[in-house]
Amino acid sequence: MKKTILSLLSLGLLFALTGCSLPLLAASTPIPTLITIPSPTPRLATPTAAAPTPTVPTPTVSLPTITPGSVVVPTATTSGIGSGSLSGPYGVILVAPGDVLNIHTGAGADYAISGSFSATVTNVMRTGPSSTVEGDLWVQVQNPGGGSGWVNAKYLTEYVAPATFCADARVNTLLTNFGNALKTSGGETLASLVSPAHGMTVRLWRYSDPIIFDRDHARWVFDSTYEHNWGAAPGSGQDAIGAFHVVVLPKWLDVFNAIYTLGCNSVQTGGASYDTSWPALYTNVNYYSLYKPGPTGNELSWRTLLIGVEYVQGQPYVYSVTQMDWEP
Question: Which of 15, 81, 185, 307 lies 20 to 30 angstroms, CA to CA, from 112?
């Protein structure tokens, strides 16, 4: 009995101990709640404006467009004459005999006609003012009837008396430089010798169609393959078509590469069936005749170049070149 009681007491004690420890054994360690700490929002840097890339403007180079054509009329220069100052004298050119150069009340053909100059006048005086109208330079001149008026400058040239011209050694230098430019195909040299006021008028024959080269066009005549129409050939009547260096240059070199004679304001030829006189339209333009005679037994192979000379601000320049030879 005593053992039984002891056993029960032991069992009770065991229960008591076990019961007290069960909650401790059953309670699981709680999983800590994750606390999400918000990440601090990064402070955005104040955007720094990128330095603008400097824009370098592309330079525009305006090069003159040169379109080869049958006739190129250059713009005449104003010759640097100040307003109210007199300059001259000037002679009338490019006006047919019996016709006149009209004087207008203003710059332009639309103004009323207030007077005129004859085709051979050599005493035109400019009074200074000038104006460009539709590509043409108009200058104010003294009106023979009183007061002043306006004329188209392309019909005027600086007048130089024939005796003064023939005594001017600078013209001989001009002709020498002109020949050298032809022999060396020097476009830049040729351009510097061409009249800056009226360009260089070229005629393949005495009565052929004129083709005018201003300075810009004179630079490329030795290289250009552009085929000009130089007019109907004597005898055949067929148009002579070809580049300057093919059709014209050989004839000019035939004179400059030979022994020739010079004639100031006089024409020398080896005989011709046509009028070989200096053109009436160029009455007030001085010129030289370069004559290459034909050899014995072939006298008809002569050739003559008539080279007109224009003064611009007192300096002589090549104004025109006309080639003449024997024509059937």
Answer: 81
Neighbours of 213 (CB within 10 A): 25
Cα dihedral across residues 144, 149, 152, 157: positive or negative: positive
Of 192, 171, 164, 169, residue with least CA distance to 288: 171
Is it true that the peptide bond before 89 is cis, omega within 30 degrees of 0?
A: yes
Buried b (16+ CB within 10 A) or exposed e, 232-257: bebeeeeebebbbbeebbeebebbbe
Compute mean pLDDT per 10 residues along the chain, 328 residues long, and list them. 45 43 40 40 41 40 34 41 74 97 97 97 95 95 96 98 98 98 98 97 91 96 96 88 97 97 96 91 97 92 97 97 90
Total domain count, the chain? 2
Where in the sequence is the domain holding 109, given as residue range(s)? 87-158
> Do 190 and 202 lie in a common domain?
yes
Domain stops at, among 136, 158, 180: 158
CB-CB neighbours of 72 under 10 Å: 17
CB 259 within 8 A of CB 179: no
Helix (H, G, I), strand (E, B) or coil at 127: strand
Are 194 and 305 in the same domain? yes
Residues 137 and 240 in one domain: no
Residue 19: its H or E element: helix 2-26
Contacts of 156 (CB under 8 A, 6+ apart): 90, 91, 92, 93, 124, 139
Q: How many Å apart are CA 320 and CA 316, to the nearest integer?
A: 12
- Domain ends where: 98, 132, 158? 158
